[in-house]
Specification:
The protein is built from 20 helices and 2 strands. By secondary structure, the protein is mainly alpha-helical. Strands 1-2 form a two-stranded antiparallel sheet. It is globular and about 80 Å long.
């Protein structure tokens, strides 16, 4: 196996830069928030709640603009019969950030939560919070594994080095600076990584366009030259499928801890909203070079390149079109800039997901569910251990599991179908309870799993209207794979069914218990007259000085007594709403 010395040098320089920035950020902010009464564990999770617009905008954008984002966008633009019309991620995630900023960022930040799961445990109790942790954790871990796997394949295309070694080294660096500095290191390295992505891809595009093997992409956008036009089109029979996928991206992109970690670290509720809008714009801007690279791939006569006569789509390498274009249509010194961009994209997402998963586990599972008396130092160590464990788990899955993309697709669907409707209920629907939450969870899970998952070769047991039998030919092996395509928007219908089940069962059980139709002794979840649902005294870190007025609906947190939940107290007046549990108990 040939080793490209220039590529190795470029990667080493880039990785050292990221590592140094991560360590510098940890050192620079090592005392941030400590003097204001904030716990060290909370500082690792959400910084000192003092992330400004510049760093915050970059880190929120970089969280979405990952390896899957730039590679996937280029792939769909390149793929025949798909094209730009089916490259939904840029617009879908941009709309997700807009909707999140308009409706979710302000109430979450104003109420001073530390993780996305806090309102669930506050309203539905610690057991239901633990149940909702499962799809959230799966989403974060499988996402990290998927993009690490993409990184390994990308590096092997351009630099021709061992995939396993490149994945392990990349993961180790991301885990190390996340361990050292928490959110501060993740946020500051995101600034560098986003700059590298932007610069690396934009430097590559002009060279690829100028290659003599590439036809005019303006012509190939609407007219077939070497393959079908790259603008693509949506056939009438696929309209519902397209809409289902778009709503999955737009609404399913909201209930992720990686998003709310940035929202909750903002210096005010208004800033949290502005960060979301900035990131939406950033996602669209960062997608442009990926779209152009996909269009270039679709407009190339590969017989004139060093790649060979058979185009990538006929070698089942469409998912690698971005690194292939960098490798075979750009000079070698330029392709290494692009390589740095891809590496940056992967690490900027992997570190965020690992930190998010460990934050939810340490706070919502270990601390609030099992050891409410745990010291801050103990929680910090649990976070550090889980950062390493979850990072190692994602790395192992990237190396050993061939179905990592299928696992991520399914888990991201479950986040949309299960967690999103429950998030709406805890923030905006008065009176939902644990019985409704369990019902919504079960309904959403069964309806989504029932539709099957072709990527995991999971057959459906619910055949929705409009389903069709399809076949996929693997060009390298000649194998024919048969699967069922559900053209009905069953994911969005499953989400709506989960939401309606939550509301209906909540009000039904509330009526049955409160009217005396069913005795309170059968309220085995303690949901209607709950003793187990957490109030502010549970969610705060210091309970010694809680006063009665702080348990009533408040506009502003008072003093260090609420430091475990609220750290930057002066921003709470941004939101005139009362606390989440008061809305549910009126």
């Amino acid at each position: 196996m040939a080793i490209h010395a220039e590529g190795i040098v470029a990667i080493v320089i880039f990785y050292l830069l990221i590592l140094c920035v991560g360590i510098w950020a940890a050192w620079k902010n090592k005392d941030s928030g400590v003097g204001e009464g904030s716990d060290r564990s909370e500082i690792i999770m959400v910084g000192g709640r003092d992330i400004g617009l510049f760093v915050g905008g970059f880190t929120m954008t970089a969280t979405w603009v990952g390896g899957g984002y730039i590679n996937g966008t280029a792939e769909y633009v390149y793929l025949p019969d798909f094209g730009l019309a089916w490259a939904q991620a840029p617009f879908g995630y941009a709309m997700s950030l807009v909707v999140g900023g308009l409706f979710f960022a302000k109430p979450m930040r104003s109420r001073g939560y530390v993780t996305m799961l806090d309102p669930f445990q506050q309203i539905y109790g610690k057991r239901m919070g633990g149940l909702l942790f499962i799809p959230a954790l799966m989403g974060e871990i499988f996402w990290s594994a998927a993009i690490l796997s993409a990184l390994g394949a990308t590096l092997s295309v351009i630099v021709d080095i061992d995939i396993n070694m490149s994945v392990i080294i990349s993961a180790m660096i991301a885990i190390f600076y996340t361990l050292v500095g928490g959110l501060y290191s993740v946020a500051y390295t995101d600034v560098v990584q986003l700059f590298c992505i932007f610069l690396g891809l934009w430097i590559s595009v002009p060279f690829a366009l100028a290659n003599p093997a590439v036809a005019d992409i303006g012509v190939s956008a609407k007219k077939a030259i070497y393959q079908t036009a790259w603008l693509g089109k949506i056939e009438p029979e696929d309209a519902w499928l397209w809409a289902d996928n778009f709503f999955l991206l737009m609404l399913g992109g909201i209930p992720w801890q990686v998003y709310f970690q940035r929202v909750l670290s903002a210096s005010s509720a208004t800033y949290a909203q502005v960060l979301s809008f900035l990131a939406a714009f950033g996602c669209l801007v960062m997608a442009v070079p990926s779209v152009l690279i996909g269009a270039i791939g679709a407009s190339t006569d590969w017989n004139q390149t060093s790649y060979g006569a058979i185009p990538p789509k006929d070698k089942d390498q469409s998912d690698m079109i971005l690194p292939i274009v960098l490798q075979h249509l750009c000079p070698s010194y330029i392709s290494f800039f692009g390589l740095g961009a891809v590496s940056a994209a992967v690490m900027s997402s992997a570190d965020s997901s690992i930190l998010s998963a460990s934050s939810m586990f340490a706070r919502n599972i270990y601390h609030l569910a099992f050891r409410q008396s745990a010291s801050d130092r103990e929680i910090v160590w649990v976070m550090r251990i889980t950062i390493f464990v979850f990072g190692s788990l994602a790395t192992a899955m990237a190396l050993l599991t061939g179905t990592v993309y299928g696992l991520w697709y399914l888990s991201s669907d479950l986040v949309y179908v299960i967690i999103f409707p429950q998030l709406i209920c805890v923030l905006f629907i008065k009176g939902t309870n644990t019985y409704g939450s369990v019902a919504g969870y079960v309904f959403g899970l069964l309806l989504r799993i029932g539709g099957g998952e072709p990527y995991l070769k999971l057959p459906p047991f619910i055949y929705y209207p409009g389903w069709v039998a399809q076949e996929k030919i693997h060009h390298l092996t000649g194998d024919v794979e048969h699967y069922v395509q559900q053209r009905f928007p069953f994911k969005s219908i499953s989400m709506l069914a989960s939401f309606l089940a939550n509301v209906a069962f909540s009000y039904l059980t509330k009526y049955l218990f409160e009217s005396g139709t069913v005795s309170h002794k059968y309220d085995f979840l303690d949901a209607v007259h709950s003793k187990e649902v957490m109030d502010k005294t549970t969610l705060v870190g210091n309970q010694d000085n809680i006063i009665l007025s702080e348990l009533a609906p408040v506009r502003q947190a008072l003093g260090g007594a609420l430091a475990g939940t609220f750290t930057n107290t002066d921003v709470l007046s941004d939101d005139g709403e009362s606390s989440a549990e008061s809305l549910h108990n009126e």
